Amino acid sequence: MLERAGVLQRPRCYPHPGALPPKYQFVNYYAPARPMERMAHFSPFSLNREPDTTIRIIAGDLNDCPNLAVDRKSVSPGPRPASHATHWRTLIGRIPYSVIDTIRYLHPHARQFSRPHRQKGHAHLLVSGTTSVDAPLSDHRPVSVTIACPSAESSTAVPSLPETSSQLFRVNTRVSADEAFAARIPFIINASRRSHPLDPLAAFEEAMARLKIASSDHARHLNRQFLTMKAALERRTHELEALPVLDDQRRAEWQDSVSMNKRLILERARQLRIRAHIPELSSEEPLSHTVHARLAGRRTTIKIDALRLADESISTDLVKCLEHIQTHFQSHHTPDDRDVAQVEDARSTLLDPVRSALPRSTKHSDSRFMRPMTQRHSKLLEEPFTADEFVEAIGKTDKGRSPGASGLPYEMYQSSPTVFAELIASTCNEAWTKGALPDSMTSGIVRLLKKPKPDADYTNLKYYRPITLRECSYKLMSKVLVARLNKVLPSVLPPSQHGFMPGRKASDAGSHLSLLLEQIRTLDLADSALLSLDQESAYDLVDHDWIISVFRAIGAPERFLGLLGVIYGSVSLRYIINGYLTGVVHMLCGLGQRDPVSCPIWNVCFQPYLDALVRRKIALDLCAVLLPTRATILTHLAFADDAIVLVSSPAALGLLAGLAVDWRLAVSRSWLVPPALVAGLGSVNQTETSLPTVIIMGILTLLAGALAFFCVSDVPAKAKWLTEDERAWLVWRKASDGSSVGEAEGLHVAQIKSAFTDYHCWVALFFYISILVPLYSVGLFAPTLINSFGKWTRAEVQLLTVPMYVFACSYVLISSVYADRYRTRFLFLLAAQILCLIGFTINIIPTAPVGVKFFGLFLCAAGAYGGVPSMISWLSTNLSGTTKRAVGTGLTLGIASLGGIVSSNVYRRVDAPNYLLGHGVLIATSVMGIISSCLYAFLLKRSNEAKDRWHAEQNALPEDQRKVFTVQELRDMGDRAPEFYYTI
């Protein structure tokens, strides 16, 4: 094969029994998913016709690709449906002679081989010869071709692909919900116990294995029932629909059949979502664009395209990547070599104060520091596990959680909680006694998720977050252990630790910090500062010996320490990379990610460091500066591994560095991240000096308002600061504004009613909203939208908004001048709304180039800001009467300003980076504005034409019959007066 490409040399023919001709065999053939890559991959295939040559193909994933659009769709252009095995048809079509047999590997849940090109099978001996061709990663699995032609005497192992994660599956939730299967669970577990009456660990492993097999068989049984029922319902539905007339009974039967068939389809879709690890959704809830985007992002976060190896080279070779990941994480979970004497000294320095502390029950116990546990709590931790504890833990589990390698989810345990509780309790107690957990409870599968950072280099493993999948039986044991620790830790740990502590919340820490800062304002602490402390990979690098030492220091019983040794003594992990598993990584240090017991254990391990902040005078002691009668005030707070400490001066940084060295020696090889300055509190005190400035500015504002009452005139005739000529001109201009008789000044109740009932205000409300909503959106979220185009700093993003606003300002000035010159508002308002429509339409297209999207923001800004002058002046010009104009513009502008609520909520963080919801809403408002503007212009034009017709009718009458209005009547009529023409 691939003889033309020079890849495979013709195999040598060795004599063998029966003098059979040479054979070709394909082993573990994996093909790419993308159509173009698939065509290029199969193009070099060339097998010359040889009468005595046959071929046998054994492939592992040739049409098992998760991308259904590639591997499951028909490729035949004719009306007759073709085979679904696209890869098989492509491959077999390249072979110039008949293929004797093509076999795919046996699926772990299938009872038979599948043969896409099934003919009579023959067993033939193959001559020797092996060639392997590796290609870069495909969409779903790496491409790997292995051609093996072994002879009868050959003992060389056939090369194979790395082990896949095909053993990872999840038992269908329908199985555990089925009453028939739930009734079988006690018999399966009891049979396993009878097989191993003296070995609970072996009985547990056998029970789990039997449950896995039984649940798989029952899932297939339920699937066959589903298909049979669905076929019967469809057949009966078709029979009823074929009848010419349906009576009431058959119509009801048809409705029931259709409804039942729909429920079956929705249930099938729900099960497929679970198998595809898609979040559970209501059966009536469609998958929105947002959900699709989140699912696409979720798939992207688990795919690794390439990795940077130890020699700094970037590789796409799967085997090298798997080896690199195994080596990296084995080194990550292995303690470094340290001087034993230095380690013991550092641990003694941190733990001696804990050992000498008084328990909480003692009168003079110091609540600021970690204290030993009481005798009652010590007895609680060494008691054997009970079935009631596991029943309670099973009742608190959530559905839909990912199980371990066995695939048995929490739903299985919830179907028979008492039976499983007794099994797990006896297993854990036996493991506690023997000092070793069952193998299934010590192993875990780890998936690497990408950390969403803007500058992340995803070829580097430090930008991935490991998530461990452990067996639900182990997690139930952890939950029982956490429930016990939650009764102990509140009396052991001081109030400074708020992370994952019962009865304590992060909001409590925020409130305390706010009160603390308020207290600092009253003190003379010019050099004080608030520092943030963190450490890299805190959970992953803590030594298991340190865990035992800390719990021994607080008085934990030896039996409980033995349980901790059992939990952390033999943990083994395997990492999933694009569907393939690495070798075993032994977890020699660190706490498990997503392990329920990791959080309380970390809180205990981290508390000696928090105590040292106070004991070594790093954290500010407010008791030294406040009256002794004041209660103790905490000056350091923690949430799990994150801490905030208040220090009095920069000298505390040197003490922090010394504490970091001791912490590294005693606990782990993880360095503390250099402290970050949250706030320099000396500047807080300086804000007190700005209080007079604030008071002065407030007084000046009040004076300006008071002076305005005397200096600002209501009407031009009363403006004393104008000259006589200026007053006369303004009075004449005001009198002739809009009509020949002007408008009345003062408050008129009739005009208030007219403003609420006039169509001008309510039609204008819509195009007001169409301008204000984009205006607020551009003003609030322009930096966010620009930041989604690429990776820039905050300062660069702010600078990139400057040209956009300059362009918008220029458009506002130019459009305002020409709108006044041509005495029209409609055309310029319409142009602004069209600009918004074009700009947001450009930005809603995900594939649009960055430069085009940036130009679209220019159009959005120009349209949003450019429409404001025309929008406001158009309505106010067409309302006559000062009272009506004031009420109408105020009413319309006030209601339209509520669009700011919409603007501030449509660009959500979950929609990044395309923001389809926000752009879609603004496109809709722009369309609404265009329609309402055109409608308003049409109504104004029709009113003007009606006034023209009235004047023509009056002119046709004799002068003595013409309608004549007094000046007061015309002024009372306002914009409805015949003399008043609307501006379009």
From TrEMBL:
Alphabetical keyword list: Membrane, Transmembrane, Transmembrane helix, Transport
PANTHER family in alphabetical order: MAJOR FACILITATOR SUPERFAMILY (MFS) PROFILE DOMAIN-CONTAINING PROTEIN-RELATED, PERMEASE-RELATED
Location in the cell: Membrane
Main location (coarse class): membrane
Membrane topology designation: Multi-pass membrane protein
Molecular function via GO: transmembrane transporter activity
Domain Reverse transcriptase: 452-652
GO cellular component: membrane
Transmembrane segments: 691-712, 761-782, 802-819, 826-848, 854-875, 887-907, 919-939
Transport among keywords: yes
Pfam families: RVT_1
Domain of life: Eukaryota
KW Transport (keyword) present: yes
Name of this protein: BQ2448_5217 protein
